[in-house]
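Q: Got one fold?
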Amino acid sequence: MTRLRVTPGGRGGPGRLLVTRRDGTTVAWYDRDAGRISLFPGAGRDEVLAALAPYLTGQVSVGPPPVPTPADLDRLSLHPDDDLAPNRPGEALHGALDAAPDPGGGPGERWRRRLREAAVRAELAAQRDVGERLDRLDGAGWRVLHAIPLPGAAPSHVDHLAIGPAGVLAVRTVAARDRRVRIAGPLLRVGRAAPLPQLRWAWHAAECAALALATAVRPVLAVAEPRTLDGGPGGDVADVRVLRDTGIPALASLGGVLKPADIEALYATARDRRTWLSRPPATAGAGGPPGPAR
C-alpha cells in the first residue's frame, strides 16, 4: 500500500494535486489542466502513479518539474513555521518539561514544584497515549493533527483534531492515571481532585475548530487509563462524546460523512497555522483548564 498522500494544491488552484509523504514533504504534483505529472528527484515514479491513479484522466506525461519560480515554491509547501503537521501530542508540555527548573525556594516550594512536574508528566503521557491511538487510524482513512494552538482565551489548544470518514472530531484528553472518573452534568472529576468543566472545554474547542474550518466539528472527550468511568463512557454527555482511550480504535469502523477528497482538503486547511489565527471570544464563564498545555 502506498504511503503517499494526494491533496488539493491549495494556492495552486483546483487543477493541481500535490503528492506528499506523511511528513508533509512534496514529492510530485499533478497538473490536471496540462495533463502532466512533475516528479521531484528521489520520488518513486511507480509509487506516485499508484497514489494518483484514482485522479488521472486521459493521457498524462511524467517528468521532472520545470524550474520553479518563487510563486511555485510558495504554492507547493507551507513555511515550516506555519505547518502544524509535525506537532507532537502535548507539544507545549514538552517545552514545560525542558525548561530549566528554578533552583530557588525553600523545601515547601521545591515539593510543590515536584508535584507540578509530576502532573505535567502524567498529562503528557495521556496526550501521547491518545495521540498514538488516533494516529493508528491512518489506515482507515483518518488524518490527525496534534496540539493546535488557539490564540486568545482558553482553551488555548485543540489537543487532537481527527479528520476522517466519520467527520471532524476535536478530541480533548483527560489524564485519569488509574483513578475513578465521574461525570455529572458539565463537570468531570478525576479521583479526589476538584471537579472541572472538561465537557464545556471540549465543546468550546470544537466550536473554535468548526468556525476556523467552516465545517461541522464534533467534540470528543478521551479519558486515558481510567480505573472506572461513570456517567457517560461510549455515549454522549451534553453533546460531547465521551470514551475511554481504549475505545478510540472503534472510530475506524465509522463513516458515511466525508469522502477521501474532502478529508484531504480539510486536512490541508487545518495544518496551516494561519487558519487558526482568528477565533471567536471565549464563551462567557468558560474559564480555562490549568497547566501549560492549555
Summary: Residues 92 and 293 are 5 Å apart (CA to CA). The chain has two domains: 5-77, 82-276.
